[in-house]
Amino acid sequence: MTEPRLDRVEVGGAALATATWGEGAPDVVLLHDGLGSIGQWRDLPALLHDRLDETVLAYDRPGHGSSTPVPDGAWPVDWMQTQALLLGELLDTLGLDAPLLVGHSDGGSVALLHAAWQPHRVRGVVALAPHSFVEPVCVDAIVKMRNEPERWIGGLVRHHDHPEAVFEAWSAGWTRPEFAAWDIRAELATITTPVVVAQGDADEYATDAMVHETVAAIGPNAEGLLLAGSGHLVHHQEPDAVVSLVERMRRAAG
User: Fold this and answer.
1) Which of 110, 134, 130 is nearest to 31 (CA)?
2) Is the overall model pTM greater than 0.90, yes or no?
3) Which residue ranges make up each domain of the chain?
4) For the stretch 229-238, what's the b/e string if a residue is b when 16 or more beta carbons lie within 10 angstroms of its beta carbon?
5) Please, what's the b/e burial string for 129-149 (b: 16 or more CB within 10 A of its CB; e: otherwise)?
C-alpha cells in the first residue's frame, strides 16, 4: 500500500500533524473520532488512495496524536463547533477549495458543521456514525469508560503523545451535565452538498434514531444507511464498505 507523506501545519494557534497519501492537492480529507488520530484510521486512507486514485489527507486535531496544544481538562461544550472553524482555517492554509470530507463519530459532526457553514467549500460528506444531538446511550457508554480509564488509555498510548489528556478532555466533555443540551440539527438544515450518513446497526454509542434524525435535519440531499452487524468503528469493521461509500459520493458530487 502507498505510504503517506508526513508534515505539520501551523493554523489557528495549533500545530497539526498531517499525513497525505498521493500527490497534488488532496481530494479527500479524513476527520477522526473523539479519541482518534491519523494512525487509528488504519488502512483506510491507503485503500481510498489506491482504489479510487484520490489524494487523501488525514490530520490530528489539537491534543490528538502529536498535534498541539494539549488539552487541560474537559473540552468545552462548543468544542466541535470550534473544530469546524479550525477545519476551515486548515483548508484555507492548504489551499483546498472543495474537498470531499469523510468524518467518523465526532469527526463526522465536525465535517457536517463545516458543510453547514461553508456549503460552497465542500464537495460532499460521508459521515460515519456522526452525532447531531446527545443520546443517553452515548453518555452512558462514556460514563462506563470513565470508570475504567486505564483500559482505554492503555489502548491510546501508541497513537497519542498525551493519551491521558485526550481521554480526559473527551470523556469529561461528553459527560458534563451542560453538554446534554448540545444539538446541531437546526444548523444542519443549511447543508446543500450531498451527504451520506452511515452507521452500524450495532453501534454502541447510538440508536438508529441518530441516523434518521440527522438525515431528516439535513433534508433531501442526505441519505441514511444502517450497516448490518457493524458497531461504532465502521472504518475498522467494514473498510471496503466505506471505500464504496466514498466512491458513490464522488460520483454523486461530480
Assistant:
1) 110
2) yes
3) 5-253
4) ebbbbbbbeb
5) bbbbbebeebbebbeebeeee
3-state secondary structure 100-161: EEEEECHHHHHHHHHHHHCHHHCCEEEEECCCCECCHHHHHHHHHHHCCHHHHHHHHCCCCC
Q: Which single residue is written with the C-alpha cell 485526550?
A: 166
Which of 160-163's residues contact partners 24+ apart within 8 Å by CB, and which partners? 160/37, 160/64, 160/65, 161/65, 161/66, 161/70, 162/63, 162/70
Q: Which of 72, 110, 64 is nearest to 89 (CA)?
A: 110
Report the largest interatomic distance among the alpha carbons of the chain, rounded to a whole angstrom.
Answer: 47
Give the SS3 label for residue 31: strand
Cα–chain-centroid distance for residue 75?
16
Q: How many CA atoms lie within 13 A of 196 on its CB side?
A: 24
Please give the average pLDDT of every successive group of 10 residues along the chain, which has 254 residues: 93 97 97 98 97 97 98 97 98 96 98 96 97 98 97 97 98 98 98 97 98 98 97 97 96 84
Rounded distance between C-alpha atoms, residue 187 and residue 8, angstroms: 31
Q: How is domain 5-253 classified at the architecture level of CATH?
A: 3-Layer(aba) Sandwich (3.40)
